[in-house]
Amino acid sequence: MERTLILVKPDGVQRGLVGEIIARFERRGLQIAALKFLSVSNALAEQHYQEHAGKPFFRSLVDYITSCPIVAMVVEGPKAIDVCRAAIGATDPLAATPGSIRGDYGATIGRNLVHGSDGPQAAAREIELFFSPSELHQYDRSLTRWIAE
Ligand code: IDP
Ligand code: MG
Fold it and tell me: Does the C-beta of 31 come closer than 6 Å to ligand 1?
């Protein structure tokens, strides 16, 4: 079982795609372990994207992710990191497969709607940046008893 950090970036919120994007992960079979709506500070943005510090797009990336509240979530499941990266699609929406979130809703690399951790180390680091341990929930899913009591 793996956990990974997903962000619905400001363009996803502004375009009214929050429900649609969360639904993609739910339908893929992933289980929500944590979920919140927050404004990302400059400091948090710089930490989250630290691997990109110094790149030409770093400043605009930080401006983008801090420009409007976002949805942060932790989802879990078998191979959750790779499953989510596949559901999200390639970084540049032009190269993203149709059927992926970026392939269906994105047009440009600077507005690609969603973030997903790219490996186990990144996932652990990023989850800790956005969530405290008490905000992460473990529970068993079942169906029958949630349809009829
Ligand atoms: P990823 O989000 O698919 O993991 P990364 O290479 O980690 O892609 O880049 C992080 C984010 O930085 C991208 O999702 C995108 O928002 C932004 N980004 C990456 N490359 C460029 C670029 O060439 N121009 C503008 N923004 C970029
Ligand atoms: Mg990345």
Answer: no
Sketch the domain layout of the chain as residue ranges.
2-37+73-146
- Compute the chain's Rg from CA coordinates: 15
Sign of the C-alpha dihedral, residues 68, 9, 75, 5?
A: negative
CATH architecture of structural domain 2-37+73-146: 2-Layer Sandwich (3.30)
Q: Which residue has the tokens 């630290």?
A: 50
Catalytic status, residue 115: yes
Backbone angles phi, psi at 18, to 5 degrees: -60, -50
Tens of pLDDT, residues 63-99:
999 999 999 999 999 999 999 999 999 999 999 999 9
